[in-house]
Amino acid sequence: MGEEELHQLINGCVKQDRKSQKMLYKAFYGFSMGICLRYAGNRDEAAEVMNQGFMKVFTHIDRFDTSRPFKAWIGRIMMNVSIDYYRANLKMAYTEDLEKAENVSEGDLTDKNLNYEDLLAMIQQLPQAYRTVFNLFAIDGYSHEEIGEMLNINPGTSKSNLHKARQKLKQMILKAEETANKTNYNRGMDFNPIVAYNGIDVRTTFFNNGIRG
C-alpha cells in the first residue's frame, strides 16, 4: 500500500468512514495478528486481543502523528493491548529467583533453530507470565528495567521469568528434535537437523515474518 493511499484511509478513519475502517483492518490484519499471536495462548485469544486493538486504533486514530510510521504506531497499540489483556487475565503469580536470574545471559538459549511456525507454537505453550517476558525481551528488545515498569514487577523477577521461559523452550526444542530424528530414522530417510540459535536469531525470525511491532 502506497503512502498516499494509506493517508487517505487514515483520513477516512478519522471521519469514522466504515469503508475506510474495513480497508485499514484488512491491510493490517496479518501484521496485527502476528503480534497478538506471540503474546496469546492460541489463535482465538489472539483474535480477541487484536479486535480490541483495532477498536483502540479507530478510537484514537485522530491522534496519530502522520509524520511518523503508521505501522510502528499500530504495532505498539497491538503490543500494549496484548499486555493489558495479560494483566487482566493473570492466572499465575510471578516468582523470584534472583540468584539464578543474575546469571542469566543471552547464551543460555543456545539451543536449536526452528522455522517460524514451530517456534511460534512453542512460545504459545509457555505459561502466560513467561511468554510475556520472553516476547518483550527476546523479540521486542525491551530491557528488564523497561519490562518491570510495563508489568509492575522488578527487574530481577523479569530476569527470572526469562530464564525459566528459555529453559522450557529448550526442553520443547530438544524433544521436537528427538522426535524428528526418530521419525526420519525409522523411515530410512535423510533429514536436516535443527540448527543452533540465540536470542538475536529469534528476533530476526519474527521480524522477517512481518511480526515485530
TrEMBL record:
User: Where does the RNA polymerase sigma factor 70 region 4 type domain lie?
Assistant: 117-169
State the CDD domains in the record: Sigma70_r4
Report the superkingdom from the record: Bacteria
Q: Where is the RNA polymerase sigma-70 region domain?
A: 24-89
Q: Which Pfam families match?
A: Sigma70_r2, Sigma70_r4_2
Record keywords:
Sigma factor, Transcription, Transcription regulation
InterPro entries given in the database record:
RNA_pol_sigma-70-like, RNA_pol_sigma-70_dom, RNA_pol_sigma70_r2, RNA_pol_sigma70_r4_t2, RNA_pol_sigma_r2, RNA_pol_sigma_r3/r4-like, WH-like_DNA-bd_sf
Can you name this protein?
A: RNA polymerase sigma factor
